[in-house]
Amino acid sequence: MKKMASEFKEFIARGNVMDLAVGVIIGGAFSAIVTSLVNDVIMPIISLITGGIDFNNWFISLDGSKYSTLAEAKTAGASVLAYGSFIQAIIYFLILAFVIFMLVKAVNKLTKKKKKEEVKEEAPSKSAEEELLEKILTELKKKNK
Predict the structure, then answer these.
(1) Residues 125-137, mean pLDDT to the nearest whole number
(2) Domain ranges of the chain
(3) pTM greater than 0.85
(4) Residue 74: is it exposed, middle or buried by C-beta count within 10 angstroms (0-12/13-18/19+)?
């Protein structure tokens, strides 16, 4: 038990755990933004394009009764196959995946640019011995011509 506790303490002490925690918190906040983007921007546009169809009200009542909305069916306690909600979840996932892809792409571009700048700044300076050897080599090349 003590060994497990010390291993856990070592695990928590690593920076990766804190990075993961920050990522989860930011991911949760980012999820709210994407949810709003999907529900408040994208879905109304899709609904407009499809003639006012609301995906949330696409469902099949499994008890055989007819309900005008999904909310009405759920209030009545009916079992429903809410495939419209599933379609909306797929659209949400695709938008989220695309936004994350674009963010990762932007971060990678910035990282590459920063690395290139660091490489340029880290141009190796020549030691006195290397400079002397280059001078000797230059002189030898002049004499051999």
Answers:
(1) 82
(2) 1-53, 54-145
(3) no
(4) middle
